Amino acid sequence: MMRLFVAIPLPEELRDRLAQMSGALDNARWVDPENMHLTLRFLGELDGREAADLDSALATIRVPAFQMELVGLGTFETGRKINALWVGVEAPEELARLQVKVENAAQRAGQPPEGRKFRPHVTLARFKGAPGPKLGDFLSEFSLFRSGLILVDRFVLYSSKLTEKGPIYREEAVYPLDVFGLRAQSK
């Protein structure tokens, strides 16, 4: 069994910029820069046959490369409890199209439909308890964050191994996007 998800990797220099935001927030567990990504679909535990079916379905996706931008910060909450800190995504139509194709491929491979609406973001930290009074100042300080345009020229099937020190992600398969389609769109 493998714990799998599909995501867009971020450029190293952007991950480093995001990591520089990490600060002294109470109860925050910051995501390691090498683990920062934009999840398109979490799949959970799959056996070898299911993973192979998923890989085959994902390999059929044909989408032009596109650009996106990370913008602003926010939090996810359950009730009144803040669970995570994230940077948002100024999501072009192409990102939504890619996510729908990934979702359709997962279902063709026999996976149940995703129950949650797609909310593109990159998780920066998770909270084990209340983030404390510094969160408001932190959000104000970085609220105008903009990454600049990022070229999305591939998406990746990752495996995730959970450890006491946090998850370890490994690329299982890389699916390139059509960079020639990007050039044609920009002319």
Radius of gyration (CA) equals 17 Å
Count of structural domains: 1
Structural class assignment: alpha+beta
What CATH architecture do you see?
A: Alpha-Beta Complex
CATH homologous superfamily placement = Cyclic phosphodiesterase
State the CATH topology: Cyclic Phosphodiesterase, Chain: A
Tally of separate helices: 5
Main beta-sheet annotation: 5 strands, antiparallel
Give the H and E element order.
EHEEHEEHEHEEEH
Can you tell me the overall shape?
Answer: globular
Strand residue percentage: 35-45%
Low-confidence stretches: none
Protein model, in words:
- By secondary structure, this protein is an alpha+beta fold.
- It has one domain (2-186): Cyclic Phosphodiesterase, Chain: A (Alpha-Beta Complex).
- It contains five helices and nine strands.
- The protein has helices at residues 12-19, 48-58, 93-108, 134-142, 179-186, and strands at 2-9, 28-30, 37-46, 66-78, 81-90, 121-127, 146-152, 154-161, 168-176.
- It has a five-stranded antiparallel sheet with strand order 2-6-5-4-7.
- The mean pLDDT is 92.
Could you give the topology of this structure?
Elements: E1 2-9, H1 12-19, E2 28-30, E3 37-46, H2 48-58, E4 66-78, E5 81-90, H3 93-108, E6 121-127, H4 134-142, E7 146-152, E8 154-161, E9 168-176, H5 179-186
Antiparallel strand pairs: 1-3, 1-8, 2-6, 4-5, 4-7, 5-6, 8-9
Short summary:
The protein is of the alpha+beta class and 187 residues long.
